[in-house]
Amino acid sequence: MAGPQKITFGDMRSMGVRGVLVYCADFQCSHSLAVMADRWPDDLRLSDVEPRLVCSACGQARRRR
What we know:
Helix content is 15%, strand content 22%. By secondary structure, the protein is an alpha+beta fold. A three-stranded antiparallel β-sheet has the order 2-1-3, with no helix packed on it. A hairpin with a 7-residue loop joins strand 1 and strand 2 (32-36).
């Protein structure tokens, strides 16, 4: 069985998605931020960007939803 398909920013834009909502991985912090996807190239995968996202409130890594 195949795993989940990793989506690129180009794939998202082709479906009309212009941004993503990211949440702090620390459930006690719960800080969130809307990020526009226009700044990244079409061939870049969303999963490639996740490690770069750090919460500006508590410093923890973020996760997308």
